[in-house]
Amino acid sequence: MALVQTQSLTKRYGNITALENLSLELEPGIIGLVGANGAGKSTFLKLLLGLIAPTSGSATLLGFDVATQGPELRQFVGYMPEHDALPVDMTATDFVGHMARISGLPRTSARERTAETLRHVGLFEERYREMRGYSTGMKQRVKLAQALVHDPRLMLLDEPTNGLDPAGRDEMLDLVRRTGREFGIAIIMASHLLGEIERVCDYLVVIDGGRLVQSAPIGDFTGSTHVLAVEVEMGAERLAERLTACGLIVKHEGRMLLVGLEDTRPYDLIRDSIVDLDLALVRVEQRRQSLEDLFRPAEETERAAS
Amino acid sequence: MQPAERAAGNIYDLGYRNYEGERLGRPYAFYSLYVHTLRSAFGLGRRTSSKIMPFALAIIAFIPAVIQLGIAALVPTDFDVYKAENYYSYIQTVLVLFCAAVAPELVCRDQANRTLSLYFSRSLKRRDYALARFAGLATALLVLTLGPQALLFTGNVVASSDGLGYLGDNAVDILPIVLSGVAIAVLMGSISLAIASQSSRRAYAAVTIIALFLLAGAIIEVTLNVSDGSLARNMIFLSPLHVMIGMTRWLFDVPMDGELALADRPRASYALAVVVIAGLALWVLDLRYGRIQA
Predict the structure, then answer these.
(1) The model scores a pTM over 0.95
(2) What number is the ipTM of this complex?
(3) How far is CA A236 from CA A50, A278, B180, in A?
(4) Which of A215, A288, B39, B198 is the 20 to 30 Å CA partner of A280?
């Protein structure tokens, strides 16, 4: 059964279209939702939660219709918003426990799971303090904990690493990945940072200007390219001339030579040329496409590939 | 097949476990928010400073009842300084201050902290949230309206030279006491929440609540003392405090006094006004939460 199904989901605010005709079907897993700021990521998540109503179209999560079965559906969904959402005058324990009960967990279970979940996200003694004194990292952890405390089938995370320092970022991403992989909780994570998505997710949805650009497993985006990168100690120029003379397409990129790879012929040619020219070879590797390539201007991508 | 079936997952000892227990859904979510609201109204689960105002006001609301019982204990005759039908006239300012202190605490914080998106992304509907908050505040107000009345009544029964006789004579008051207490809690609770929910700033909300109740009362008082036109006399329905006292006097079947006597409206019209005003306030509250951004 599909995790998420949307049909021509559209959201307009007056003349501004936040989301245009979005139809997609997602299977359970860790799904990255990528797009620039203002691309419609948060709007998409809010539509899935029923926090805002679509202008047209419909969405189904976990087999529940968002518009008509919201309360039933949301027992099984956790949401971590992008913005601050914590009452500063409560302790993390009180607040997460309260949210667990609002999610339908009986008192005793709520208390147990609050303790477990806060430990899971890495909050220990400080959970008995009022949240007003919390660092951004601790607040993000509490926000994650409240989304997780009722053991949802699906978590929607909106920019979970917002405002975190590099170490906090790593820990948060690790936490998200572990939660998704080890506990079988499907996750949709919105981020404008491709590096994060690449590290955590196994499926990718790209939206831009409110439109769906692509939806595919992450492997499809980061597969091998038809480019060989060659690095030699000295004499890159001579090697480039020699390879060009042999009919290969060669480009410079810093210390590297990028060689077009239409068949397996370049491997042998590079080896032989380096031996003949008596150069010191540092490495030869097939270029992997990074997600960043997707968002480079088209002509630049073309140049890099050719 | 269950609509929500999870992918199989390995469980490691990381403190986290999957939950297989029962999920009680929307009714329990409503109940939990109601209980939480009632507790928050008295600052329970919050720092000590949050408890001072509500508890102090609640205690003040009980003072007339305590004084009456003290007198009854000292003076053996059945001598009523504070009667049930007059009780809300004594404590109406305390009730207003309680609303101004508590209602913003209950709803403004959720807007200022943007906690609403966490509530609305759970089993609660927007209307459930509004209704649970209202029910919690109205229950807290009941403590201040019915509480002293119950103390006064049982105290009088106990202190009276003829306890059973007193009970027999005054049993007719029990229904008006309960009805007026509930009606006042509903009226004041709905009005204050409708006002407080419009803003995320607690101070603004508190000032507006006090202004609405007390200023409206003062304006009507002045107006009725300088004019006896039908417009002036009908304006009394715009003052919630006058309306609730009028309704109370109708319920206890005692003569109207003060501005209520000057206005000289049909006695039952105050009960109707309570229903209309509370209905309007709840409608505004529902409208607000239907539209509020989360």
Answers:
(1) no
(2) 0.88
(3) 58, 12, 94
(4) A288
